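Operator note (shift B, R.M.): manual run for Succinate--CoA ligase [ADP-forming] subunit beta requested after the automated queue skipped it. Running by hand, logging everything below so the morning shift can see what happened. Input copied straight from the record, untouched. If output looks odd, do not overwrite the archive copy; leave it for review.
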Amino acid sequence: MNIHEYQAKAMLHEFGVPISRGVPVLKPEDADAAAKQLPGPIWVVKSQIHAGGRGKGKFKEASAGDKGGVRIAKSVAEVDEFAKQMLGATLVTVQTGPHGKQVNRLYIEEGSDIDKEFYLSILVNRETSEISFVVSTEGGVNIEDVAHSTPEKIVSFSVDPATGIMPHHGRTVAEALKLKGDLAKQAEKLTGQLYAAFAAKDMAMLEINPLVVTKQGQLRVLDAKVSFDSNALYRHPDVVALRDESEEDAKEIEASKYDLNYVALDGTIGCMVNGAGLAMATMDIIKLYGMEPANFLDVGGGASAEKVAAAFKIITADPNVRGILVNIFGGIMKCDVIAEGVVAAVKQVGLKVPLVVRLEGTNVEQGKKIIRDSGLNVVPADNLDDAAQKIVKAVKGG
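Run finished. Output pasted below as returned.
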């Protein structure tokens, strides 16, 4: 789960992290009052979407101007003008794709007198089961570009969960950023504060780009991107309350209600599979035969007929889907349960695209009989390779 920049900063501030003052704005008419709460004479008007590259992004609407999703205002009147242009417009960045995202929230922030920009992120290292820091003097740019062109400017280290954060970790950050004296002490303190927030809130990633030194000699978090471990949200109702469903795919939201693992993709063949590994293999073989999957959908090992029906409805709700492949290997999951769910869903929503079903494993003959006796126009498949070839052929009009 992701949250907006202003929400992330408010959360970090609870742990003592230094941030700039700012006010979130949801309606253009509120921008004037928000700006007047801040000292000026410079304000920063920031689009709030769940995507990076906002500053270099472009709005689709001509009325929104071509100054990107992060703008510097030199008067309250200019803040007001930018808010009217940006709210409700669609911002396209390198991370949104060509369709872009509609800007429904802004963050009006006081300007900062920047001397230096750094990069700092914290994430879970899946290989070592530790929390890791990534630090660089090259802030304000894509860290991927730094890693490619000047990897020696990136310093990373992990924190042993048995000890937690220690003073030497803070000194490592200060040394990596080439900070001395009071700024080094600030970096050491900030390291502990960020680690505490990351661990306490079960974050999956915390990215600060840039972390700045102001000309007044203060370290400050100028931007923050935070995502959380969805499996831990049950113990953080305060975090769940920050969820902005308008930033998420409606199909993924519906899938989460049924505890389905669903990710929307850009292809045309819908997939319903049980097991993440089998789902990945299914998507790979669809690509092997020249087409693209429309989704990743793992119904899990013990899904009910109701859950399967919900999954089928979610797939068919995607207007890009031109064919569906159901690929089930029954272990705990029984093939007859899958068949009942598919038949129930098709009878409710109809079937307007080709459907190929491959069943194998527990109760496979009962499952095949249920589909055979349903009267549905379903193409059976003997194995995964056969299923992939049949659905690709059907979608291509064969």
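Quick read of the result: The CA atoms of residues 119 and 209 lie 5 Å apart. The chain has a mean pLDDT of 90.
Leaving this for review. - R.M.
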